[in-house]
Amino acid sequence: MLGAAVLLPAVVVVSARSGHTQTAGSSRGNRHQTHVIRVDRMVFAPAPANIRVGDTVTWTNLDVVRHTATARNGAFNVDLPAGASASATMGKAGRFDYFCRYHPAMQSQIMVVT
């Protein structure tokens, strides 16, 4: 079970592949975007520079093996079966270093701003 130290809401698994940024409205009138990070050839593509609190990051696994995007501080942990996508909503500003649990040499980071 996730503890109080978790910074982000639950992860939603999505099956569609996407290579673009989408915008969705919120109840406060703010607009949040979805940013896609591709996982290809055992590498996380660089994260977009404009990720804001409330935005969603979707990792799309183009490899034939399973990966994860696991934050070192426990803020998110998305499971990425081969050919699938999964998402997490960024709930707090900061730098989030992450890696693949199955392939620890796969590492990257996300910068989230307010």
From TrEMBL:
Protein name from the UniProt record: Cupredoxin family copper-binding protein
Family annotation (PANTHER family): BLL1555 PROTEIN
Extent of the signal sequence: none
Lineage, uppermost ranks: Bacteria, Pseudomonadati, Pseudomonadota, Alphaproteobacteria, Caulobacterales
Domain EfeO-type cupredoxin-like, residue spans: 24-112
InterPro entries: Cupredoxin, EfeO_Cupredoxin, ET_Amicyanin
Highest taxon listed in the record's lineage: Bacteria
